[in-house]
Specification:
alpha+beta, 6 helices
Length: 337
């Protein structure tokens, strides 16, 4: 009888291995100054709250913004506090890579489950030129430096690769100092142009084809010029000189004629009405905005679809609980290979 039970269990295990989908869930989370807590007890509490969020999202890879530490060794220690907490909560080992910083303590990072995921390459955009809308202005660099990573995900019989670009664009803080009166939207547009071009030049043009994601804190709504430039529907040049587009005071693009350009990246978050009904990912003065996002190149958008028959429902979502973890929601997207 015992042998029969073992045979049944082995049979169902084999069937599960054969039919189980090859998927990976990629998330993004702004940590809200994680690393600036006063004392280890407070930091441990914040790590617990953030860890619960990441656990609730069933995340395998997480793009993090605001790992807060000026020194790189402190940033790694701060990240390890979170990965140690995740090991405790998820019974799985996690690893971390942190990016560079330019003029402040905020860094970008990736964390991932090490059991079946390898970091192939991490690349900082520290020296990447950011173009200017006005030709008379010199190019600049990112104040919060994007971090690109390529991961190898090992499934039972095959491995897949995923490329991700973690971003944290210029915030609206200090908007009163922006001479254009546009809450630094032009700066974000310039940064978005640089990131999209880099994604095309470095990743989509590679011989080995893999899904390419741009994810993180855009600091502009999904209807903004920044969002449209990041997706590839508009380019920075569409707003220059006598070009047909301008920026409205409500920070949406207004074009005198239609720009016949298809997007290169699309958002399974804002394409899904269920996610749009949430209202946003960040609350400011009691109003929600979609400042955070996950974009995937349109050639691989099908990996996130709930079914082949629906172009409006995606395996992607928004998580606010626990509320005390961060002022930004966690976003997740499941890729099914």
């Amino acid at each position: 009888m015992e042998g029969m039970y073992r045979l049944i269990l082995l049979t169902f295990s084999w069937l599960f291995c054969v039919t189980a989908p090859n998927n990976v869930t990629i998330c993004t989370q702004n940590l809200h100054n994680f690393g600036q807590e006063k004392g280890p007890i407070t930091q441990n509490l914040r790590a617990t709250l953030l860890g619960e969020r990441i656990k609730n999202g069933k995340c395998d890879i997480v793009a993090l913004q605001e790992v807060t530490a000026k020194r790189t060794d402190y940033a790694r220690k701060t990240c390890k506090v979170l990965t140690d907490k995740l090991k405790e909560l998820t019974y799985a080992d996690w690893d971390c890579v942190v990016g560079d910083t330019e003029d402040g303590p905020h860094r970008l990072a990736f964390i991932w489950k090490v059991r079946n995921i390898n970091l192939v390459e991490a690349f900082s955009y520290k020296n990447l030129d950011v173009p200017k809308l006005s030709k008379i202005d010199a190019s600049s660099h990112f104040n919060r430096i994007p971090l690109e990573a390529i991961f190898r995900i090992k499934f039972s019989e095959v491995s897949r690769y995923v490329a991700a670009i973690n971003i944290h664009l210029k915030s609206k803080a200090g908007a009163e100092k922006d001479p254009t009166g546009l809450k630094w939207e032009i700066v974000r547009m310039e940064q978005a142009e640089a990131i999209r071009k880099q994604a095309l030049d470095r990743l989509i043009s590679r011989k080995e084809k893999m899904p390419v994601l741009i994810l993180g804190d855009r600091n502009s709504d999904y209807r903004s010029p920044t969002a449209k430039i990041l997706a590839g529907e508009l380019h920075l040049a569409d707003f220059a000189g006598n070009a047909p587009c301008r920026i409205s005071k409500s920070l949406v693009p207004v074009c005198l004629k239609e720009i016949p350009r298809n997007p290169i990246f699309a958002s399974p978050i804002t394409l899904d009405k269920a996610n749009l009904s949430v209202g946003g990912t960040f609350r400011y003065r009691k109003k929600l905005q979609f400042l955070d996002d996950i974009l995937i190149d349109v050639n691989h958008l099908g990996l996130v679809q709930k079914s082949h028959f629906s172009l409006k429902e995606f395996d992607a979502g928004i998580i606010f609980e626990p509320l005390e973890a961060s002022d930004h929601a966690l976003l997740w997207a499941k890729l099914k290979f």
